Amino acid sequence: MPGAIYAEGLVKTFGDVRALDGVDLDVPEGTVLGLLGPNGAGKTTTVRCLTTLLNPDSGSAVVAGMDVLKNPDAVRRSIGLSGQFAAVDEYLTGRENLQMVGQLYQMRAKEAKARAVELLEQFDLTDAADRPTKTYSGGMRRRLDLAAALVVSPPVMFMDEPTTGLDPRNRQLLWDVIKRLVSGGTTLLLTTQYLEEADHLAHDIAVVDHGRVIATGTSDQLKARTGGERVEVVVHQREDIQSASEVLRGFGKGETTVEDHMRKLTVPVAGGAKLLAEVIRELDTRGIEIDDIGLRRPTLDDVFLSLTGHVAETKDEENGKEAVK
Ligand SMILES: Nc1ncnc2c1ncn2[C@@H]1O[C@H](COP(=O)(O)OP(=O)(O)O)[C@@H](O)[C@H]1O
Ligand SMILES: [Mg+2]
Asked: Residue ranges of the ABC transporter domain (predicted)?
């Protein structure tokens, strides 16, 4: 049985650009799929096709049990959407915006009011509740946009880069909100450029590049393919590279890479912070002076590098175009 969000062979072209080149997805009910990819990969186009805002050239999609192409109105009634194109009325206050959404969804006025109060509180907007939205900062708008998507709890939600442009505190706040939402049974498709975010929130991850899903799996599975954590060391003196490399070999789970000009050595490891402490002690014992040392998890770039053999392309102009001001 197909999941709450199901897509097969979605293709969408814009002139010469093949934005989607056969996207397949299957998201089981009550789970979170993180759609991960660099700018221009096709994330937003996928979301727009699944939320009836855009018709694919070919392929099919079923959302909340209904065919997106045959039954768009019914799909729209069963989904919530927040993202790079969702609209907030500039001239209304935050409170009015949220109440209006509630009324659009046929809530009673009293109920819509109460829900607005709750969400303003949750998103730390109570103080600004009665100011016109046009006076809000970028981060505040972003939060209001997300709150608007949560006025009703539809069975299926889409969030397009919900935390891009949020500071760490608000990112954490949003993560908590999302976790609560999902524990209530909502199926969520979330796009992000951050592996860390998918890590916190998603049951499964689909990596998209050039309009195709190039890998799927849990975050752990993707990281395992990328080789797990790495220790990075920058030695103070070039002469120490060789002996540092010997130390790392003793702890590593794979080959040590050396960037000579930066005096930097990197090795995949398994063992976390405890192992890091041992590496530091061993370097110290041998009198190797270090400028910097750290443990890092694979980044999106590492995952991309290992999946595609090339560093993810970045297309910043698109980011600019889509950015919520
Ligand atoms: N309306 C459009 N007109 C022309 N090209 C578009 C349009 N929307 C998206 N594209 C192109 O399709 C590709 C995928 O874009 P998009 O889905 O927005 O990627 P992402 O959300 O992953 O950054 C990009 O090359 C982008 O320039
Ligand atoms: Mg996008």
From this structure: 5-235
The boundaries of the domain holding residue 237 are 228-296
Q: Check residue 206 and give its pLDDT.
A: 95
Burial 160-194 (b: 16+ CB within 10 A, else e): bbbbbebeeebbebbeebbeebbeeebbbbbbbbb
Structure tokens at 25: 């997805």
Out of 137-141, 211-215, 303-307, the most confident range is: 211-215
Q: Which atom of ligand 1 is nearest to the CA of 39?
A: 23
CA distances to 33, 52, 71, 205, 317 from 29, in Å: 10, 19, 20, 15, 35
Instruction: Identify which ligand lies nearest to the alpha carbon of 42.
Output: 1
How is residue 31 written in tokens?
């789970």
Q: Are residues 157 and 190 in the same domain?
A: yes
User: What was the pLDDT predicted at 39?
Assistant: 86
Protein residues with C-beta less than 5 angstroms from the ion ligand 2: 43-44
Residues 174 and 239 in one domain: no
Confidence of residue 44 (pLDDT cuts 50, 70, 90): very high
Ligand nearest to the CA of 161: 2
Q: Count up the domains in the chain and report the number.
A: 2
Q: CATH number of the domain at 189, please.
A: 3.40.50.300
The answer to pTM > 0.85 is: no
If one residue of 10, 14, 39 were mutated to test the ligand 1 pocket, choosing by the most ligand atoms within 8 A of its CB, it would be 14
Task: Specify the pLDDT at position 127.
Answer: 97
Residues with CB under 6 A from ligand 1: 14, 17, 19, 37, 39-45, 318
